[in-house]
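Session log. Operator J.P. requested a structure for one protein chain; no other inputs attached. Running the standard single-chain path with token output.
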Amino acid sequence: MSIRTTPPGALVTLFEGGSFCLSDPVGDMPGSGAGSAAGLYVAGRRLLSRLVTTVNGQPLEPVDHHRDDPAAATFVARARRWDDAAPSAGGPVVVRRRTLGAAMRDSIEVRNLGDEPSYVEVEIEVGADLATVAAVRDGGDLPDPVAPEGGAPDEVLLVRGRGTGRVGCRVTGAPDVVAKGGLLRWEAIVPARGARRLTVVAAPIVAGAELVPGPLLADDPVRSDSSRQLVRWHRTLPHVASDHQPLVTVVRRSAYDLGALRVLDPEYPGRAVVAAGAPWHLALHGRDALLTAWMSLIVDPELALGTLETLARFQGTEVDERTEEQPGRIVHRVTFDPAGFGAPADGARSVSYGSVDATPLFVMLLGELRRWGLAHEVVDRLLPHADRALEWIERHGDRDGDGYVEYQRATDRGERHQAWKDSPAPIRHPDGREARGPLALAEVQGYVYGAYRARAHFAAEEGDEEAARAWAAKAADLRRAFNRDFWVEEAGWFALALDGDKRPVPVLASNIGHCLWSGIVDEDKAAVMVKHLLSDELFSGWGVRTLGASMGAYDPLGAHTGAVWPHDNALCAAGLVRYGFVEEAHRLMLAQIEAADADGGRMSVLCGFDRDDVTAPVRFPDLCETRAWSAAAPLLHLRSLLRFDPHVPQGKLWLSPVLPDAISHLRVERIPLMGGTVTVTVDRDGVEVADLPAGVEVIAEPRRPLAAGA
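Structure written below.
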């Protein structure tokens, strides 16, 4: 599927594994000047910062471009005739097909549309500054460009360092390309109505290791394993049909974007995980991956399994204040590198543990995946990791033994805020003052509650009734304490956090929706939470804001103090459905779908402006084109519409769809369950279930809020 992903003039993003490239609409990279992020990035560095193409001494003029898949694009441009000073319809057309894999490969075809042979001279100027991703992304000081080195007659070598510290790239052209300095030059006579082609390969040099570019100069390079895997993955996805076209579009786009971010571990090629976002967050972020996998269960439970197995591989084993590793702690970030997940890139630390919520989410997801039919032997393999995660919660996460998980970074180089709202100062009092830590966040206690409940169910399955009662008691105790200590009576909502003095931070924020999702909220408080979520304070008309509009720190352009995030809203909507507030959930889901429909079907982070004030959704100035948990949000909305809650070990499927008035028909084919697939059709006449696995009974009612293990 070819998808336009950028407006005219914006950078075109391709990514493959941990590598990505950004270019202009003709495929060029204008250089490393101030404000330019274009380039080829591998292993955390920009290995190519300049690639400028001229034909007959003139720059190319863009015609159109399309991204053919996440790692491939086609650029169409016009050139000028050698004797023309102005654009001419008789000038050559340049079609550049770019693929990104182990290297970046450009197949450049020059087409002559005229009636007589045409001489063309193509020059490609290349350069590199080898800047780090962080320096480019954050606008830091950039190094001077690398001086090109001589090599073979058809290549430019851009490199610094020696031995294992050698880093850069080798840019090679064929056929009949001549290199001089930082310039590749190619001449040809293109016949009338004919074409000639050259190929240029930028092969990375990382930690002294170098890719041989020769095979990539061939006419038909082999597609990468991940590209082939992506094609197979798309063929197995559920199919959604509805009379509400925006829903169909947003789910289709969701699957495309989510698939684009799937990454295979080179050491375990059968395991897929998702990168947090492209292009600037092509790493495995524990929290993002766990929530994305949860939201995506209705299309791909295998993604959840790959996420759990990979995070278990990097689970903390020792205390290291530099990375904030602690025994049992689930990793916050693992970089992707050609050598494998977590391999060092340019000597930089590639693994960090500065997350307070990934660890309980790990246990929650394992519990939920068991409900979808995860095999006993796989549970037995992963349950020890869940137990070590629970040990971390009670030993290291609960710093002072008060029963709540708190965070405060170990050093001034650590992650300052260690939950999903991780901008510099997202936790503030109603008057705008920053809250002092250690901080115990409301939603994190909900995740811990869910983790305890999940472990109680595992114990019950094992026949260990004593352990099941103990874990259930821990959950009940935490729930009672939470509803007592976090409740702000005079405000009528739950505090965002408890500060370092155990005093509530009584601001109104979207975190209360996560608390509904986890089930930690007492039922007698749920209705007022729903009222706040859909009030003018939080609900913009396009979704729930991260912070109430009357709070002192509110800013509609603040990432975590006013913006509207798709994954946040999907969890809020799921929480509303869990407590039986279906109409309110529909209002929220439809608002998000309408916003996505205005953006080609993609759910994006939005500014918090009121819909009545700014009548079109305003995209947040996000540096990431695609975020995994934003892509997965529509999939959780789809599950919430169906109220699809399996418990395969008990042989039950709670299924109680309710459609909003705007949707009269919904059919979801091939929902994966228990090694097979289920098809659900919903219309005004009722619900039809096909291909239900043997031994599974449909219960035509919603799952009770407190019946869930996670």
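Operator note: The two ends are 36 Å apart (CA to CA).
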